[in-house]
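User: My instructor asked us to take a sequence, write out its structure as tokens, and then describe one feature of it. I'm not sure where to start. Here is the sequence I was given:
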Amino acid sequence: MPHLTDADRIARAEAWIAQDPDAETREELAAIVARVRDGDAEASADLADRFDSRLAFGTAGLRGEIAAGPNRMNRVLVSQGAAGLAGFLLEQATDAAPPSVVVGYDGRRNSEAFARDVAEVMAGAGVRAILLPRLLPTPVLAFAVRHLDTSAGVMITASHNPPNDNGMKVYLGGADEGSQIVAPADAEIAGQIDRVAATTPVTELPRGAFETAGESVVDAYVAATAAIATAPAAQPRVVYTAMHGVGWETMRRVLEAAGFEAPDLVAEQIEPDGRFPTVAFPNPEEPGAMDLSFAAAREAGADLVIANDPDADRLAVAIPDDAEPEGYRRLTGNEVGLLLGWQVAEQVAGSQAAAGGADASGSPGTLACSIVSSPGLEAVARAHGLDFRATLTGFKWISRAPGLVFGFEEALGYLVNPRTVRDKDGISAAIAFLSLAARLAAEGRTIADHLDEFALRFGRFDSTQVSIRVTDLSRIADVMARLRAEPPTEVGGIRVDRIDDLAAGIDGYPPADVLRLVFEGGARVMVRPSGTEPKLKVYIDAAATEGSLEERRVAASDAVARLEAGMRALVA
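Assistant: Let's start with the prediction itself. The structure tokens for your sequence are:
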């Protein structure tokens, strides 16, 4: 983009105001322009940040802060995104019937307005547009793409991002089976969006009438999700929080249909509230986000805490732990993923034994996880005669693993029902985990006991994560460049065996800005920029497969602690 002056930016801002259908963002931008005209340096920098670049459309769709300008999320950008997606679908269409899209939205600020813009603009472009009946979890939208057999799906959500963010997440039907978009579709859609933005003011985009889906879509999701449960032989005492999101209404119906008693609720967080008043970040992984859940669990004497993030595509689980100040410990995403993967592996192996072999495709079934998730899943697959696939980060890749029966990523994402939802689903994962907890409770065992059994059978797999939030994104690029230019020979006193740079597209992966450090003894560190937040992420994994349970625990945790201390010093 050529260098812009304040005069250039003011001209662009005034053109933006002229096409913006939102009075709030029009007024916001007009006030900034007035301050720039008065010589306000801070306003000039703000205008430059909004107009010198554009919020990029990629494999995560669009996501950013709600505000005026092309580098923010707003009704202009969403309408341009909808027109671009419509152009892509119309270009791809191969039969006489028009392409179709189903649109969903959560409880964040502007989510419903953005969803209606998407539906109207796509309908006006000649795409059959169907809006879900009300605010609903992301997994219901992902389900609806396949259930309604649409060409695409759009979910308006920013998942667990800060309160003033929102986003537009895109799925494709047909051969993509309801998975999120990947290359080259993302670049093709982005090209269509850029063409619309350069040639057609939003006020000139035709808008049409959309359909509203009936409650039968939600009913079908509830039935399909409840069907994965095993009849509970015991009823664990459960505390549930929706984290101010949209999960509870659908979760309640699924629990009831699956035969589980109603949980105790974190009342302060159970209703949708886009302000997220009780948490700094509405993400169960963030420090303090589950404090209210732990307090409710102590009062109830709960066996489990179950938390969804605001759009209910993620699941967090906590169990009693007297060693913790709160009395409960949130399990890592790897711990939950390994237990769910083990459960699925046993079910698949049992079904195949009863049926006399693999399914009609000849595949024994695949367990898949992202390359930054625990390598313990491969040990589970190997022990049960299943295939294993490690993919790039994101469910857009995990969901495409051939023969998939289960997939997870360490960031609290789990895919336990691939026949109906090709994305992470915090509600179906909760039902699967509750089924496991109920079976163990009936046998007089706990989740903590089961984690120990896992360690003795497959090995103790420990992990941790270093996450560095930045305000200047160039800091992340600088750290990645420095690690490539000056690769370490040891970290935390553990020798580096090799460093793999995935930017070169090794091991059959598409090129990715990821470094993999493999250490003497088999420990592993992955370093990458976050795809959705301004963070540098470092993932640390180590395993111990010899000795007693305590010896394995000590060996694995010691290796992880040494690597964590070394990596913190290295990326500081």
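For the description part of your assignment, you could build on this observation: Residues 333-355 form the longest helix (23 residues). Try explaining in your own words what that tells you about the chain.
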